[in-house]
Design goal:
Blueprint lengths: L3 E5 L3 H12 L3 E6 L2 H7 L5 E4 L5 H6 L7 E4 L5 H14 L3 E5 L3 H9 L4 E3 L1 H20 L1
Parallel strand pairs: 1-2, 1-4, 2-3, 4-5, 5-6
The site of adenosine-5'-triphosphate has 20 residues, from helix 1.
């Protein structure tokens, strides 16, 4: 059976994941509480819905239980990110990738069972620093 994905939070990070998965032909449910963001993804994702991800009943109604991999890309609102992760964990989602804002956020996400925790800005900064070093090595 085809693997299904959901992206919660359609900011720059979540939006880019959603676009790439869709471009690769994956089935993606895009969700955000902001109507304008959701409208942007109506033509891109398989389905795009306006909902508050901290509303357990809404996630159940949307059939989140049957989604294989959920990406929680809520940034600034750490409280919403943690609560959403907890609800998804309790719904029994097989794989959860969550964006962390700082080390304390990461610790909590670890404790509640997020499978993969990412710090996009920090990770990209590290990668670029290494690529700068290796291009300098080639220069000299
Ligand atoms: P980026 O750097 O990826 O642009 P960010 O770190 O600035 O994102 P935010 O803009 O805070 O992160 O959040 C990303 C998205 O998550 C926003 O589009 C916001 O509307 C959405 N969001 C925040 N809280 C919720 C929620 N409770 N339910 C659904 N979506 C939410």
């Amino acid at each position: 059976m085809k693997k299904s994905y959901a992206v919660i939070g359609l900011g720059r990070f979540g939006g880019s994941i959603c676009k790439e998965l869709s471009r690769e032909g994956k089935e993606v449910l895009a969700l955000d509480s902001d109507e304008d963001k959701v409208n942007e993804f109506k033509e891109i994702a398989s389905d795009a819905v306006i909902a508050d991800a901290t509303d357990e009943a809404a996630l159940k109604e949307l059939g989140f239980r049957n989604i294989d991999h959920v990406i929680v890309a809520i940034g600034d609102n750490i409280h919403a990110s943690i609560l959403t992760t907890l609800i998804l964990k309790e719904l029994g989602i097989k794989r959860l990738t969550v964006k962390a804002q700082n080390d304390y956020h990461e610790k909590v996400l670890n404790k509640i069972g997020a499978d993969e925790i990412v710090h996009p800005e920090r990770d990209m900064g590290k990668r670029i620093a290494h690529s700068i070093i290796s291009s300098n090595v080639l220069d000299y």
